[in-house]
Specification:
By secondary structure, this protein is of the alpha+beta class. The chain has ten helices and six strands; from the N terminus they run βαβαββαααβαααααβ. The strands form two sheets. The protein has a four-stranded mixed β-sheet with strand order 2-1-3-4, covered by helices on one side. The chain has a two-stranded antiparallel sheet with strand order 5-6. Strand 3 and strand 4 form a beta hairpin. Pfam families: GST_C_2, GST_N_2. This is Glutathione S-transferase family protein. It comes from Sphingobium soli.
Length: 228
């Protein structure tokens, strides 16, 4: 039976991107269903398919799997390649995924994802600086230890999927992550699945007021490549 992966707007939904790009990169077949954000709160509508009222959600027959990490763990039990085969690389990837899932709050709030725009940030707070420095440190460590071009070695795995939204943020906000980490960003942005997500994001014509306001609070929009 084919999976159904439910995600939201390509421009905004960083949590949706994680399992979507993981499944695309690994060649895991799924039906792609988009439930766009239409208001500041979509809880009631999203409760019809997700117990948390949030995206993403994976439907497997009569089973619903929710949360980007929950979906990743579920897929890892059923498909090869979600985690690196090498034990050291796998331990690193799993820790980095957990760190991304629970941390980097300032990076999320100060640099909300919007694939189609370029933003000149208002300020770089010390807390944001710490998050960016940690991202750079983690990426450089993975690339050096495991040889790249992905964060845990030669193959795309869950760690790359979980940091894929940050690659878009680095570009949108012009964040300085250093040459080695920027190399990973450039490599990720050229990945066919990332390019497909970006193409679909740029083609979106709907806008959600609260998400657009977040971008305006983060900085001055200096370019907008979205249709409409």
């Amino acid at each position: 039976m084919t999976y159904t992966l439910i995600t939201a707007n390509r421009n905004y939904s960083s949590w949706s991107l994680r399992p979507w790009i993981l499944m695309k990169a690994l060649g895991v077949s799924f039906d792609d269903r988009i439930e766009p954000f239409v208001a500041a709160s979509n809880y009631a509508a999203f409760r019809s398919f997700s117990p948390t009222g949030q995206v993403p959600a994976l439907i497997d027959g009569d089973r619903t799997v929710w949360d980007s990490l929950g979906i990743t763990l579920y897929l890892a039990d059923r498909h090869a390649g979600v985690w690196p085969a090498d034990e050291a690389a796998r331990a690193f990837a799993q820790c980095a995924v957990a760190e991304m899932h629970s941390g980097f709050a300032t990076l999320r709030s100060d640099c909300p994802m919007n694939v189609g725009v370029r933003v000149e940030p208002h300020i770089h707070s010390p807390a944001l600086g710490r998050d960016i420095a940690r991202v750079r440190e983690l990426w450089e460590q993975g690339l050096e230890r495991f040889g790249g071009p992905f964060l845990a070695g030669a193959a795309f795995t869950a760690i790359d999927a979980f940091y894929a939204p940050v690659a878009f943020r680095v570009r949108s906000y012009g964040l300085d992550v250093g040459p080695a980490a920027q190399g990973w960003v450039d490599h990720m942005l050229s990945h066919p699945a990332m390019k497909q997500w970006e193409m679909e994001a740029l083609a979106e014509t709907w806008r959600e007021e609260s998400h657009e306001a977040e971008i305006g609070s983060a900085g001055r929009i200096i370019a907008d490549y979205r249709d409409g």
